[in-house]
Design brief:
single chain; alpha+beta; five-stranded antiparallel sheet; 9 helices; 41% helix; elongated; Prophage_regulatory_activator
C-alpha cells in the first residue's frame, strides 16, 4: 500500500483502538484553531499545490507545535503496518526533525528509516487519543470538530469531548467571541463563516488591534437562534 492519496482526503481513514490517525489529529487541530478544512490542510502540506499563503503558514505552525509536543513526549505516537497489524510505540527521538510538515502530510513513515525523507512509508502513524484530548483541552478548554460529519463526530466522541453549548450564558451576552470559538459553536469552517459574512448572512466581525477579529456574543446568539 502507498500514500498516493492525501490521508486528509481519505473517505475511510485507517483506525486503531484508542488512537487517532495523525492526519485526523492535525486536521482537527487546524479546524479548531483556524477553521481550515481537510482540503485546505492537504493543499497547505503539499509544496506543489496552490494554497493561500496564510493557510500554509498557519498549518505549518500547527505542524511544528504538534511535532514538538510529540518530540517532548506530551503526545505519544504509534506506527501500525499498512493493511493492519499491531501498533508499536514510536520513540519520541524519531521526531527530532527540522521540518515536520512532510511527515504530517503523509501521516506515515518507515520505522526502520525514520529520518530518510526518500524512504517509502510502510506504516501509518497514530496519536494517543488520551494525550490528544488532554492537549486540546489545555489549549482551548474544549473540543468540537470543525465540520458536522458523522466521522468527525465519532472521533470527537472517542476523544471524549462534549459539544459546546450554542446557548450563551446569562450575563455573557456582550462579551467578544473569537474565531476558534465561533467555529466550534456554529459547526462551520472559517471559509464558510467569511463567505456568509460577504453574503450578509452572518454577523459582521469587529476588528481589534493586531488584526484580530471578534464577534459580539449577543449577535452570535441571535444568529444561532435564527440562522440564515
Amino acid at each position: 500500500m502507498t500514500c498516493n492519496t492525501s490521508p486528509y482526503l481519505l473517505a475511510e481513514p485507517p483506525t486503531s483502538t484508542g488512537r487517532a490517525l495523525l492526519a485526523r489529529a492535525v486536521s482537527h487541530w487546524c479546524g479548531l484553531h483556524f477553521g481550515h478544512s481537510p482540503e485546505e490542510i492537504a493543499a497547505a502540506l503539499d509544496p506543489a499545490a496552490a494554497c493561500d499563503p496564510d493557510v500554509r503558514k498557519e498549518v505549518g505552525l500547527a505542524s511544528r507545535l504538534l511535532g514538538e509536543l510529540i518530540g517532548c513526549g506530551e503526545l505519544r505516537t504509534y506506527a501500525r503496518p499498512f493493511g493492519g497489524g499491531s501498533p508499536e510505540a514510536l520513540p519520541a527521538a524519531y521526531w527530532e526533525l527540522d521540518d515536520f510538515r512532510s511527515r504530517m502530510a503523509l501521516s506515515a513513515l518507515d520505522p526502520k528509516r525514520p529520518f530518510d525523507g526518500d524512504a517509502d512509508p510502510t506504516h501509518w502513524i497514530f496519536v494517543s487519543l488520551e494525550d490528544f484530548n488532554r492537549v486540546v483541552e489545555q489549549s482551548c478548554e474544549g473540543f468540537l470538530p470543525p465540520e458536522d460529519t458523522a466521522s468527525d463526530a465519532a472521533l470527537a466522541r472517542q476523544i471524549g469531548a462534549a459539544p459546546a453549548s450554542i446557548v450563551p450564558s446569562s450575563g455573557a451576552v456582550d462579551r467578544h467571541v473569537r474565531l476558534p470559538e465561533l467555529v466550534r459553536r456554529t459547526g462551520m469552517s472559517r471559509s464558510t463563516i467569511y463567505r456568509r459574512i460577504s453574503e450578509d448572512r452572518f454577523p459582521q466581525s469587529l476588528p481589534l488591534d493586531g488584526n484580530i477579529s471578534v464577534w459580539r456574543e449577543s449577535e452570535v446568539a441571535a444568529w444561532l437562534a435564527d440562522p440564515r
